[in-house]
Design a protein that fits this description.
Elements: H1 5-14, E1 19-21, H2 25-35, E2 37-40, E3 43-46, H3 50-57, H4 65-74, H5 79-85, E4 112-115, H6 118-125
Parallel strand pairs: 1-4
Antiparallel strand pairs: 2-3
C-alpha cells in the first residue's frame, strides 16, 4: 500500500486487527517469488514466464519479475498497475504461531506497527 496521510489513518483504525510495517527488499523479493501470482482474464496464473508479464505490463516498461519487485519496493510510477496485476498474496499463519494476538506490538503482542521488524514475521509466514 502506498503510504500517505490517508492510508496511515486507515491503518490506525484497523490497527487492532492487522500487523504492518516497512518490508525490506529481500522480503518483498521472497514474497513475490514464492507467493506471487498474476491476474489475467479473472484467472490466477503463476509468475513463471517473463513473456506473460511483458505481454500485460510491457507498455509500462515492466517486463520481468525483477521489474515488478522494483516497482513494489520503490513505489515507482507504475506501482498502481503492477499491484492491480498481482493477485493478493495468501500467507500462512507464522511458524511457531502468534505470541499474543490480543495485545499491541509495543506491549509484547502481535498487532500494530512493527516498522522494520515486519520482515521477521513475514519470513515466518511465507
Amino acid at each position: 500500500v502506498k503510504l500517505n496521510k490517508a492510508t496511515i489513518s486507515m491503518l490506525r483504525i484497523a490497527e487492532p486487527f492487522i500487523a504492518w510495517g516497512y518490508p525490506s527488499l529481500r522480503t518483498v523479493k521472497e514474497l513475490v517469488y514464492k507467493r506471487g501470482f498474476g491476474k489475467f482474464q479473472r484467472r490466477r496464473l503463476p509468475l513463471t514466464d517473463n513473456t506473460f508479464i511483458e505481454n500485460i505490463l510491457g507498455k509500462r516498461d515492466v517486463v520481468c519479475v525483477e521489474d515488478i519487485i522494483h516497482e513494489i519496493y520503490t513505489v515507482g510510477k507504475n506501482f498502481q498497475p503492477v499491484t492491480n496485476f498481482l493477485w493478493p498474496f495468501k500467507l500462512n499463519n507464522p511458524t511457531g504461531g502468534w505470541r499474543k494476538k490480543t495485545t499491541h506490538y509495543v506491549e509484547g503482542g502481535d498487532f500494530g506497527n512493527r516498522e522494520e521488524k515486519i520482515n521477521q514475521l513475514l519470513l515466518r509466514m511465507i
